[in-house]
Write a structure and sequence with these properties.
The chain is built from 11 helices and 10 strands. By secondary structure, it is α/β, with parallel strands linked by helices. The strands form 2 sheets. A 5-stranded parallel beta sheet has the order 3-2-4-1-5, sandwiched between helices. Helix 6 (142-151) crosses helix 7 (168-179). Strand 6 (132-137), helix 6 (142-151) and strand 7 form a beta-alpha-beta unit.
C-alpha cells in the first residue's frame, strides 16, 4: 500500500487565513517537507499544532537530491505533507518535481486548498478576471526579460506576475517599453498583511512610483492587449520591418515573430516575405554582375 502526498496551501500573510484542515494535516503527517523549517515552526506555533512526524527541508537547493528520499517514503506507505513559505506548493515554489515523481510511482496526490497570491491579486486588481494567464517570475537578465514580455505583447488575457521588490522598477520599465505606457496594471504588495497596498494605474505611472523603491511581496497584474485589426502591408514592407529589427541586434527568428505580432499576421507570412526579399536581392546582385561583365567585354 503506497502512501499519500499532500500539497498544503499555507497563508500568504495572515495566519488566520489557514484552513482548519491544514492544522489537522500538520499534526498527522508522517513526514513534513518544508521550504523553510523555521517558517514552518512559526506557522505551527501560530496554529497551536505540535507535529509528530519527521520534518525535513525541501527547497530549491536540495529539491533534486531530496525528491527520491521522499518518494521512497511515499512508496513505503507514508503520508508526506509538502508546505512552502506561502501559497500552494509547486506554483513558483518547490513541488513540481516531487508531484511528477509521485505520480510516476502511482502514489496518490491530493491538496489542502489555501490562499493564493495569484487569485487574490487578480480579484482585487480591478482588471478583467474572466480569462487570465499566470507568468510566474520574469527572467532577471534585461534582454531575456524583454524577450519574455514580447512573447505575450499581444496576449488578450489578463497577465499575472510575481516579482522581487528590488527588481520591480526594472520590470515595470520593461513593461512600459513592450506593452506601452498606457496599459492598465495593478501592483499588489503585502497581500493580506498589515501593510497591504494595491496600486492601480497606467504602467508608466506605476513605473515612476516603483523607481522610488518598494518593499514586500509583490504580485503584478497587467491588462491584456486590446484587439486590433491587422495592418495591411505588402511583402516588401514586412521584410523591411524584419530587417530594421535585425539591424538593431535581434536574431532573424525573433524579429520575424515580433513583426508578426506587431502587424497581426501569421509568422509564416512574414517568413515568406523575408525569403522572397532575399531572393529578389540575390537576383538583383546577379543581374548587376552580368551587366558589369558585359560592360567589361564591350
Amino acid at each position: 500500500m503506497t502512501g499519500t502526498l499532500v500539497l498544503a496551501g499555507t497563508p500568504i500573510g495572515d495566519t488566520a487565513d489557514a484552513p482548519p484542515r491544514l492544522a489537522a494535516e500538520l499534526a498527522a503527517a508522517d513526514v513534513i517537507a518544508a521550504e523553510d523549517t523555521r517558517r514552518l515552526r512559526r506557522l505551527t506555533q501560530a496554529l497551536e499544532v505540535q507535529p509528530t512526524g519527521r520534518v525535513v527541508s525541501y527547497f530549491e537547493g536540495n529539491e533534486a537530491a531530496r525528491t527520491p528520499e521522499l518518494v521512497e517514503a511515499l512508496t513505503g506507505g507514508a503520508r508526506v505533507l509538502l508546505v512552502t513559505d506561502a501559497g500552494m506548493p509547486s506554483v513558483s515554489d518547490p513541488g513540481y518535481r516531487l508531484v511528477a515523481a509521485a505520480v510516476e510511482q502511482g502514489v496518490k496526490v491530493t491538496a489542502v486548498p489555501g490562499p493564493s497570491a495569484v487569485l487574490t491579486a487578480l480579484a482585487v486588481s480591478g482588471l478583467p478576471v474572466d480569462r487570465f494567464c499566470f507568468e510566474g517570475f520574469l527572467p532577471r537578465k534585461p534582454g531575456e526579460r524583454l524577450g519574455r514580455l514580447r512573447e505575450v505583447a499581444e496576449e488578450r488575457r489578463t497577465l499575472v506576475y510575481f516579482e522581487a521588490p528590488h527588481r520591480l522598477d526594472a520590470t515595470l520599465a520593461a513593461m512600459v517599453e513592450v506593452f506601452g505606457a498606457d496599459r492598465r496594471a495593478a501592483v499588489c504588495r503585502e497581500l493580506t498583511k498589515t501593510y497591504e497596498e494595491v496600486r492601480r494605474g497606467p504602467l508608466a505611472e506605476l513605473a515612476t512610483w516603483a523607481a522610488e523603491g518598494v518593499r514586500g511581496e509583490i504580485t503584478v497584474v497587467v491588462e491584456g492587449a486590446a484587439e486590433r485589426a491587422p495592418r495591411e502591408l505588402d511583402a516588401a514592407e514586412l521584410a523591411r520591418l524584419v530587417a530594421v529589427r535585425e539591424e538593431a541586434g535581434e536574431r532573424r527568428k525573433e524579429a520575424i515573430a515580433a513583426v508578426a505580432v506587431e502587424v497581426g499576421v501569421p509568422k509564416r507570412e512574414v517568413f515568406d516575405a523575408v525569403v522572397a526579399a532575399k531572393k529578389n536581392a540575390g537576383a538583383g546582385d546577379a543581374g548587376a554582375k552580368r551587366t558589369g561583365a558585359g560592360d567589361a567585354r564591350g
